[in-house]
């Protein structure tokens, strides 16, 4: 009887541990790093929004895009605690079907929206550097507001299939209470929706990267051709502005790559029961 109790205890302990996606030596550092990122991300982006709202001189067209991206980042970080909960205990999912769908949808929408913002901002920088006179008349605050609104609407629409792809589902072969998982729905995945969203994410990656590569090449070419035409203090000021522009473009490209990693994570969610990654 003692051996049977010991076996039952070990079996229950194994089942309890199997509810985590990773070993404890992986979960602890990931949780610490994610907690730091959560605090810094929320604080930094909130400060960006507060500064943009308080100081009128900061309300330039570029900062309008940056403030919108800051809002997108805040929404992504708000879903981080749920992600941490899921890697510590992927089942049973206790927050319900609506929150499961909504958090995946919110993360995907904000990822798409940020990528669209970066691409659009790069187009604006291209016109501002290569065609400055034309940019002054075409790139207005009112027009930028409409563009930002359209980017959010487009991101919401293109991410909407996520609402039908993910949800809380009972996996076969386990008790109902133990089988509640926030994962992709097998029925929807069999219809090809998972592959469709994977292709959508791929398009959101390659098209912006191609666009950014082309624009950055044109911008760098323009900056290189004009760096020898100016002399004196004006040249030093322009050189400083050029360096800032190149740094911003490099950060934009890194952000697109990072955003795509998050999108792939959503569409290829790990499940220990079916082995999907």
UniProtKB/TrEMBL annotation:
**Keyword presence, Membrane:** yes
Which Gene3D superfamilies does the record associate with it? Rhodopsin 7-helix transmembrane proteins (1.20.1070.10)
Q: What InterPro entries does the database record attribute to this sequence?
A: GHS-R/MTLR, GPCR_Rhodpsn, GPCR_Rhodpsn_7TM
The GO cellular component terms are:
plasma membrane
What is the recorded membrane topology of this protein? Answer: Multi-pass membrane protein
Q: Which UniProt keywords apply?
A: Cell membrane, Disulfide bond, G-protein coupled receptor, Glycoprotein, Membrane, Receptor, Transducer, Transmembrane, Transmembrane helix
The GO terms this record gives for MF are: G protein-coupled receptor activity
**Compartment(s):** Cell membrane
Per the annotation, which location comes first and is thus the protein's main one?
Answer: membrane
Q: Where are the transmembrane segments?
A: 26-52, 64-82, 102-127, 147-168, 203-224
Family matches, as SUPFAM superfamilies: Family A G protein-coupled receptor-like
Keyword RNA-binding assigned: no
Q: Which residues form a coiled coil?
A: none
Q: Which domain of life is it from?
A: Eukaryota
Domain G-protein coupled receptors family 1 profile, residue spans: 44-249
> Which family does the record assign?
Belongs to the G-protein coupled receptor 1 family.
From the Swiss-Prot or TrEMBL record, give the protein name: G-protein coupled receptors family 1 profile domain-containing protein
Q: Which organism is it from?
A: Chrysemys picta bellii (Western painted turtle)
UniProt lists the gene as LOC101941151
